[in-house]
Amino acid sequence: MLEKLTGIHVRWECALEVEFDKRKREWLKHFTVPDILCADVSEVGEGDGTCWNLMTDEEAQLPEDLAVYSFGYSCKDLSTLNNMSSEWRSECVVTGRGSTGKTWLGNMGILRKCKPMLIIMENVPSARRGANHAKMVSDLAAAGYRLFDVEANSADYGLPQDRRRAWFVAILDGLCLLQSNADFQCLMDTLKLDDHLPLARFLLPPGHSYLKALLEIKKKLIMKREQAKARGTAKLKRGKATAKAKRPGNKWKSDHWMVRRVLRMPAPSSDLPDALADVVRDNAMCDRESDLFRVICDGPAKPDPDEQPCGTQTFST
Q: By the 8 A CB rule, do 36 and 55 touch?
């Protein structure tokens, strides 16, 4: 996006990563290869500008003048799904209490030391309301930033998930060209895609028979749902479907299983090749995730003859 807007080639370098989860830290070491990897955002933010670098196992100085600092501070004390958060939900950022308040303070400490030009944050939609949001605005203003926010669904921007979240962008006052939150909303709207992308689109090349069948089924399901809404029967049908799914012997079936049936594919083998089994284990996939992964990897390798070659085909029937 930056290259498109500026015409300048942008080279990204990962200077700093902070991750509390040990398993995720191992992933970051292999795939993002940061210059500095730290474990606790609170310790880093409250420190004197130095931190313990897990990449080299020695003390390091926090980088100065970062271009972009992106973080998702904890949503635990803001989320309505967490029953234990009600005690300080309305003021967790204000008071610095709970995991949400502590991670907010830790990240604020880091950005005060590193002074990035652009800050990108993410949290649950309730983070855009009340005293917590007012505290975010005042903290960032005191640090020299202007804050803009919007609620967006990741499915509208090219990710294969239906996930509504609050997105915040803070820009140094001297660099900010946006005048209002409405300007930021308009900018986000220009980035939306016309159609949602299914997970298979990330794993299979364009023109693949499995992908085309999945898109066709998705289209039919959406049309059927819209017609049901128009007739006022959508709620009734959902109730029947839910009751049926709870009966013993009825197994949940995803769109991917429907595609396999349309393409007359055999049921996938329960045994995974060692390489794929390693992926399932290393990413701690649950049964549903590993089933979906196996189904996609076992998709038919039949690209559309009208399509141009899309590179090496690594899937087998």
A: yes
Of 164, 170, 160, the closest CA to residue 115 belongs to 170
Report the DSSP beta bridge partners of residue 270: none
Contact in structure between 294 and 276 (CB atoms under 8 Å): yes
pLDDT in tens, 207-246: 777 777 777 777 787 778 777 777 775 555 555 544 444 4
Overall average pLDDT of the 133-157 stretch: 93
Q: Crossing angle of helices 209-231/255-262, nearest 10°? A: 120
Question: In sequence order, what are the residues at sequence separation of 6 or more whose Cβ sits closer than 8 angstroms to the Cβ of residue 107?
Answer: 41, 45, 71, 73, 121
- Provide CATH 3.40.50.150 ranges for the chain: 2-190
Contact (CB, 8 A) for 40 and 22: no
Q: Tell which wins on pLDDT, 298 or 59.
A: 59
pLDDT reported for residue 244: 44
Q: 22 exposed, middle or buried (CB, 10 Å; 0-12, 13-18, 19+)?
A: exposed
Which pairing describes strands 118-123 and 68-71: parallel, antiparallel, or unpaired?
parallel
CATH superfamily of 2-190: Vaccinia Virus protein VP39 (3.40.50.150)
Q: Which residues contact 310 (CB under 8 A, 6 or more apart)?
A: 205, 206, 207, 208, 303
Residue 125 corresponds to which amino acid? P
Residue 307: strand pairing partners: none
Alpha-carbon Rg for the chain, nearest whole angstrom, is: 23
pLDDT digits (tens, 9 = 90+) for 179-213: 889 988 998 998 888 877 767 666 666 677 777 77
Which pTM was predicted? Answer: 0.66
Contact 159, 122 (CB under 8 A): no
Q: Is the pLDDT of residue 120 over 90?
A: yes
* Closest of 119, 131, 138, 123 to residue 92, by C-alpha: 131
- Is residue 272 a contact partner of residue 289, using CB atoms and an 8 Å limit? no
